[in-house]
Amino acid sequence: MKRLAIIPTKSTSIRIKRKNFVLINNKPIYTYTLNNLINSKLFNKIHISSDIFVNKKYQEFLRPNSICKKTTSIKKVIQWTIMEFKKRGEIFDTVCLAYPTAPLLDQNDFKKACKKFENNKKFPLLSVSKFNPSIDEAMVKIKNFVKPKNKSKFYQDSKKHKDYFYDTGSFAFFASNYFYNKKIQSRSLTKFFVPFVLPRNKSIDINTKEDLIFLKHLIKIK
Predict the structure, then answer these.
(1) Residue 114 located in a structural domain
(2) How far, in Å, CA of 130 to CA of 135, rounded?
(3) Number of domains in the chain
(4) How many angstroms separate the CA atoms of 126 and 97, rounded?
(5) Are 168 and 98 within 8 A, CB to CB?
(6) Are the CB atoms for 102 and 30 separated by under 8 Å?
(7) What is the pTM of this model?
(8) Nearest Cα to 128, choosing from 99, 173, 170?
(9) Alpha helices in the chain (DSSP H)
(10) What does the pLDDT look like over 12-67, one tens digit per residue?
């Protein structure tokens, strides 16, 4: 079983300047993901996918600017990367997409997720966490007031509320055949994922400055 891990680490970002290189405890944030992948000893190849060289040991080539745009899908990045390796005679069975902004994880999260995925590779695996409280308790703001989004569910006993999950922006595992198969390359990434449920204290998806402040607070008390 040959495994490839891809860390998408382009140099630019919109909401947080150079988000993938923000310093956490004086270390670039992407290095936490890199070190977890290295220490897991799962992968035949770890590749930092970036438009600049940040660690040549884990970058055999740069990502072209044409797929570094804000409109570029992550599927396109994965597909292009594994095709570049294929040109070099390297073909993988499993592909892990490991995001650079997940410093709260540890190597065991990757080990457990990989094992779960490879026990049944029919569907991709995605790191998720549970909404708490349930979104059945959601409210919406109307002018100066808030009201239940769904009144019948809102006033139910909370024990009857459904479990809902969100993508933590940490990692995903795929069978590489998905990206090699030209018949499905034009389709959306996937409709169904096997969930790998992370606890809330490992599930901060960094999209805003407030997320980053909260992350730094968690790192301090970890």
Answers:
(1) yes
(2) 10
(3) 1
(4) 10
(5) no
(6) no
(7) 0.91
(8) 170
(9) 30-40, 74-87, 107-118, 151-154, 177-180, 209-221
(10) 888 888 999 999 999 999 999 999 999 999 999 999 999 999 999 999 999 999 99
Residue 192, in any domain of the structure: yes
Confidence band, pLDDT 50/70/90 cuts, at residue 127: very high
Residue 37 inside a domain? The answer is: yes
In angstroms, the CA 104 to CA 212 distance is 12
Domain that includes residue 41, residue range: 3-130+165-221
- Determine, yes or no, domain membership for 138: no
CA 204 to chain centre: 11
Angstrom distances, CA of residue 29 to CA of 66, 72, 109, 176: 25, 22, 17, 27
CA separation, residue 91 to residues 1, 45, 68, 87 (Å): 10, 10, 24, 9
